[in-house]
Specification:
Distance between the termini: 23 Å
Mean pLDDT: 90
Number of helices: 12
CATH class: Alpha Beta
Order of helices and strands: HEEEEHEEHHEHHHHEHEHEEHH
Structural class: alpha/beta
CATH topology: Rossmann fold
Length: 290
């Protein structure tokens, strides 16, 4: 029996009800050229909750995250096969992806799904914050306003309100309100990451994706970011990739454990840490590997 077959027998997925899901991933495969990185991954993302993805390096966490808003389209020879449903819209329902799905699964009901989202519209609805802070080389104000200007026409007064609201939500307003027109690159690392969060939420996305957002931050900045995310889940749905198991336990509502490109276990966070059902999960969270 192969290791992957053995792992498949240990899978334990306790999914929340479908009627409150912001995103639902069904049987997702992902390929870097001919190399398959994800194998039939299912993932429910509950609305107004934080879902954490954990697992050892190279297990597919970031690959899964980047599939949710199709940022992989920026790179050649990468493609996904499966379904990613965002409020009934199949994120992957372009002509090429539908053909790949038919080749994999045969007849399917893709035609019954709503029309696909264009990529610009998708990325407005599913924002992303990366591992290292990525402020643009412009003022704090213009960093936050950047995405809004791409999608909307706003008066200066309206834009002022949007920028302030986003910075307040990101717990950054009090620290930068007197220097909005200075460079965002002059902020500390933790402030820069919260600036990126503010930029992401300024366009009012449905979902915010975060790929190890605290990995380059000190403990104080990490705590501030975590507090911010817990507050933000009242208004947004959040998916976070983290190697920090304590962070996942502190802030998330649901946790998925991935290994070798598969979703090995998915449970409410309290359950997965107190009563893991997969031996692989137990071994990982107790530090036996990873």
């Amino acid at each position: 029996m192969s290791d992957m077959q053995h792992l498949g027998e240990q899978t334990y997925l306790a999914f929340p009800p479908r009627d409150n899901l912001a995103i639902e991933v069904r049987k997702l495969d992902f390929f870097y050229g001919k190399v398959q990185a994800l194998h039939g991954v299912d993932l429910p993302v509950e609305r107004n909750a934080i879902t954490a993805l954990i697992g050892p390096s190279g297990c597919g966490k970031s690959t899964l995250l980047r599939a949710l808003n199709r940022i992989y389209n920026l790179y050649p020879k990468q493609h996904a096969v499966g379904r990613i449903l965002l409020d009934g819209h199949d994120v992957l329902a372009d002509r090429t992806s539908v053909q790949r799905l038919k080749e994999r699964d045969g007849d399917n009901d893709t035609a019954m799904l709503r029309s696909p989202l264009d990529l610009a519209g998708l990325r407005a609805r599913v924002g992303m914050v990366f591992q290292k802070p990525t402020p643009f080389p412009m003022s704090i104000y213009d960093n936050v306003a950047f995405g809004v200007r791409l999608y909307q026409r706003r008066s200066r007064a309206e834009m002022d309100d949007i920028v302030e609201k986003a910075l307040r939500r990101a717990a950054l307003w009090d620290e930068v309100k007197s220097k909005l027109h200075t460079s965002g690159l002059g902020l500390s690392g933790g402030q820069q990451q919260r600036l990126c969060v503010a930029r992401g939420i300024a366009v009012e996305p449905d979902v915010l994706l975060l790929d190890e957002p605290a990995s380059a931050l000190d403990p104080v900045s990490t705590a501030k970011l975590e507090e911010t995310l817990v507050e933000l889940r009242r208004d947004f749905t959040i998916v976070i990739v983290t190697h920090n198991l304590q962070q996942a336990a502190r802030i998330s509502n649901y946790t998925g454990f991935m290994y070798l490109g598969k979703m090995m276990e998915f449970q409410p966070t309290g359950d997965i840490f107190s009563n893991p059902r997969s031996q692989r999960t137990t071994d990982y969270i107790t530090g036996r590997f990873g």
